[in-house]
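Encode chain A's predicted structure.
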Amino acid sequence: MPELITDPRDPRVADFHDLHAGDRRPGTARGTGPVVVEGVTAVERLLTTGLALRAVYGVAGRLAALDLPAGVPAYEADKWVVSETIGFRLTRGVLASAERPAQPELADVLAGSRRIAVLEGLNDHENIGSIGRSAVALGIDALLLDPTCADPYYRRSVRVSMGHLLTLPVRVLTDWPGDLERVRAAGFTTVALTPGAEVDLSSLDPAEHPRTALLLGAEGPGLSAGAMAAVDVRARIPMRSGVDSLGVAAAAAVAFAQLR
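Encoded structure for chain A:
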């Protein structure tokens, strides 16, 4: 049975204190601290990942909807106490915290993948979450991030991905853009998505490029000169005259589907 929480500052639910909508939860450095997941569906997906659960916290009805493993600390409170604990009104009714996934070795990611997405300079957590959800749905095997990208395991990223990011291998490339040479050496055709390219993305036959790495840059600046210099192909998504580009999350979904 879940333990009752009546004090929003109860140390038993410390993982959920002050989860404001900023870049990260207070008191933690970027890329550290537990993963926090919101909502029954996302928590259920978390339960399939094998990540070590730290705590589950929410209102009675949402907790009852979960088939929690024995021994997982579960805490129940009314919606007002939960909201005061986390610092905003929680509409999904339940949260869970878990240990962060360990970063896989780049060599293992490349050996086990056919299609990967490489992100540069994406500092919007919700874009990363949306891209992660599309990646899982549309056949991308892993995500590689340059060091300036936002934390893919921050609460908002995981929320927008509906927990799918937790099922996808994610690796931060510390040598950027030098690590792109390792991607190419592993047999991947590296494709930069950019509005100014002359090559139409739809002209790239996936059968002729069985291993593909798609590079996506931040909205506005796009990919850096160093990244662009390291790719095999620069391609664009064809679209109507007068519209030069899509948002990066939408462009990623279109490109993922095209390269399946």
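The first strand starts at residue 3 and ends at 4.
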